[in-house]
């Protein structure tokens, strides 16, 4: 619940300016679109300048952690070692890995190899070998602010088929990014992602999507990459969400490992690839906060 601000009250965004000189027209515009029956972001999804500054600091750690992983990942290491690197680097920089103990998740990072779609749990038993493709998904909490991004890594020489999957999955993210602009629709982004995957003969996982992020690990909105242009939620400046499609080489179906209730696999056993960026909607487009 938000108490309606008077025109001369201080704006909710913390600018110190009067509401009428700050976000009033913005709020009115959103209310007008909502009155047409369209989904619009709630106030909590629109970050203030201070919040964005905090999230940016958190994201800096997340980027540095993935840079560190990029430098040290190699054939012959186990994914447990990646977990240790992520924990040590994150905490050294003053942050905490967000996955650790999140809804019972036992590790500091997700490491998803080949046909693992996401939420691969680091283990001493999983040894990276030449030809593997692996997603490393890192998330950081700093001063209560969350960041989230992931990258793919090719271990040594990988097959041309896998290499292309990894490349196209990345292109999908950046095609989606091009469609992010204020007063557009999340479905513009979702369709751009999906179209690029589909044009390359791939499928995009339906059940698992992206999410708002910043004040919590996973916030509304839930973000689909099987959505249609002009549909889903309105995008407005100050919203932060992830673009993180899981792109399958083969069929779209997935299943969850019953042994741990976390790790998601492709049903057909073919590889899956995912890159994740965290995006801020700005006044004139979008800005990548974490990659
Ligand atoms: N980082 C994942 C995401 O992109 C979430 C992982 S949840 C965890 O949303 F508990 F497995 F870490
Ligand atoms: Co995410």
Task: Describe what this molecule looks like in 3D.
The chain is an alpha+beta fold and 291 residues long. The chain contains five helices and 15 strands. It has helices spanning 24-35, 49-72, 79-92, 160-178, 186-199; strands spanning 96-97, 110-113, 116-118, 133-142, 145-154, 203-204, 210-212, 219-223, 240-243, 246-248, 254-256, 264-266, 272-274, 277-281, 286-290. Strands 1, 2, 4 and 5 form a four-stranded antiparallel β-sheet that branches. It has a three-stranded antiparallel β-sheet with strand order 3-12-11, with no helix packed on it. The chain has a three-stranded antiparallel β-sheet with strand order 6-10-13, with helices on one face. A hairpin with a 2-residue loop joins strand 4 (133-142) and strand 5. The two termini are 34 Å apart. 45% of the residues are buried. 2-amino-4-trifluoromethylsulfanyl-butyric acid binds at residues 99, 102-103, 105, 110, 119, 137, 139, 148, 244, 276. 2-amino-4-trifluoromethylsulfanyl-butyric acid is lined by residues 99, 102-103, 105, 110, 119, 137, 139, 148, 244, 276.
